[in-house]
Design brief:
This protein has about 150 residues and is mostly helical. The chain has 4 helices and no strands.
């Protein structure tokens, strides 16, 4: 019986060893596969991020180039604009009045304002004089009322 017991024991050990080996081998393989899959996914994600960023920069650059093309001017148009500007400058120089002329006009206006101030009275002065006239009329009216009070008029 001892022999058979040893055989069973050996068989039991062997099956445990096989199960352990199977678990370790496939567990390591699974870990390796998971690590490789994760590394590939991260790599694809990084490549996608940088590719998207590069493409957005290219799109922005294309938009800016398009704006520059729209805003740019051709040589014939530039010459045409320069000639128009030169004619406008010439017209301005012809229509230009010197500063001295304007200063004379301003001096004349200042003198006229001074003349008007001296010739006319201010609003407050007018009201004050009008009140004086009203008080005088009231005084005269009171005197007349007292004079004719007893006569029945």
């Amino acid at each position: 019986m001892c022999i058979s017991y040893e055989k069973e024991d050996k068989l039991a050990i062997r099956s445990k060893d096989i199960f352990f080996f199977y678990y370790v081998f496939w567990g390591v393989r699974w870990l390796e596969q998971w690590a490789i899959t994760t590394a590939i996914t991260l790599g694809i994600g990084a490549i996608t991020y940088f590719l998207k960023r590069t493409m957005s920069r290219v799109d922005k650059s294309e938009d800016e180039i398009g704006k520059l093309k729209e805003d740019s001017i051709k040589k014939p148009e530039l010459k045409e604009n320069i000639s128009e500007l030169k004619s406008e400058i010439k017209q301005i120089r012809e229509d230009y009045t010197p500063k001295e002329t304007h200063e004379k006009d301003f001096d004349e206006c200042k003198n006229e304002i001074k003349q008007i101030k001296s010739d006319y009275i201010m609003k407050e002065d007018f009201y004050r004089e009008l009140n004086k006239v009203d008080r005088k009329l009231d005084y005269i009216t009171n005197i007349l009322m007292e004079a004719f009070k007893g006569k029945g008029v």
